[in-house]
Structures are given as C-alpha cells and as structure tokens.
C-alpha cells in the first residue's frame, strides 16, 4: 500500500510527516469542479529531513495550482522542462535551501520533492485541481 501526503525516506522505509490540519474547498460550475486542498504538516523529527509529497488524483483531473508555504514564505509551482527542473532542485538542496519539484509518478499520482525541512518546521501544501464531474443517469447523481 502506498503512503500519501508529506513523507521522508529512511533506511527502514517511508515515514509520514504528521498531518495537523486539512481544509478542502470546491467550486462547481455546470459539470466542472475546481477543488482546493490545504494540508498542514509539522516535522517532529530531531533532524532536518528531505521530504516529498505524494498526492493521488483522478486520472481525468488536472492540477492547475501548487503552492508550498514554510515559515510564512510561499512558493508557487512553475512548469519547466523536467531535466532543467531536476537540476535546479538538486542545486538548491545542496546549498541547504528549500526546493520543490513536482513530477507525475503515474497517471493517477503526483509527487513533489519538497527538500529540506528543519526540525519543528510547519509546512502548508495547497494543491488545486480541476475535474469533470460524471453524471450517473440511473441514480440522477453526480
């Protein structure tokens, strides 16, 4: 079974970072939904960790906004060519800076490398996606 949310790897395996709060909002127009999820995590480890975020998403949905906030500093996602983005991410992590890299792991899972999170730091991840709603004609439900 996969672990989703903000996590970090050790020799033993993948460890989740504690989720402190979740806020979900949605706007629906006709048969299209725009969903925003805001998740708050806190690094309770004694050391700085290099974290990653995994998010399962319906394959017909499209992520349209991604934002990470650490200590009041907001970083919004920018689309770049994958090799260039990976190079920039590695350089920033090696400098000890926070860095973020969002990649598609599969059609229904997105993964973002979040980089260095110091002990006690709070991380807020906001992800917005749009998706077409399906109509179930037998039950007259969406």
Layout of helices and strands:
Layout: E1 5-9, E2 14-16, E3 19-29, E4 32-42, E5 49-56, E6 62-70, E7 73-76, H1 82-94, E8 98-106, E9 109-117, E10 122-132
Antiparallel strand pairs: 1-2, 1-5, 3-4, 4-10, 5-9, 6-7, 6-10, 8-9
Written description of the protein model:
Helices cover 9% and strands 56% of the residues. It is mainly β and 142 residues long. The protein has one domain: Immunoglobulin-like, CATH 2.60.40. A hairpin with a 2-residue loop joins β6 (62-70) and β7. The radius of gyration is 17 Å and the shape is globular. The mean pLDDT is 85.
Attribute tags:
mainly beta, Immunoglobulin-like
- What distance separates the N and C termini? 28 Å
Please outline the major beta sheet.
Answer: 5 strands, antiparallel
The whole-angstrom Rg is 17 Å
Number of domains: 1
Strand-and-helix sequence, N→C?
Answer: EEEEEEEHEEE
CATH architecture: Sandwich
Number of strands: 10
| Helix fraction by DSSP (H/I, runs of at least 4) | under 10%
Compact overview of the structure:
The protein is mainly beta and 142 residues long.
């Amino acid at each position: 079974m996969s672990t989703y949310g903000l996590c970090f790897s050790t020799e033993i395996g993948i460890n989740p970072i504690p989720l402190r709060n979740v806020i979900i909002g949605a706007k629906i127009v006709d048969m299209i939904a725009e969903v925003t999820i805001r998740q708050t995590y806190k690094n309770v480890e004694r050391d700085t960790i290099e974290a990653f975020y995994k998010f399962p998403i319906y394959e017909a949905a499209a992520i349209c906004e991604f934002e990470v906030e650490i200590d009041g500093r907001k970083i919004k996602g920018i689309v770049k060519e994958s090799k260039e983005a990976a190079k920039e991410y590695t350089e920033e992590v090696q400098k000890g800076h926070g860095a973020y890299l969002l990649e598609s792991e599969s059609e229904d899972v997105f993964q973002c490398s979040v980089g260095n999170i110091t002990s006690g730091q709070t991380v807020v991840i906001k992800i917005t996606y749009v998706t077409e709603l399906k109509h179930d004609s037998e039950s007259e439900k969406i």
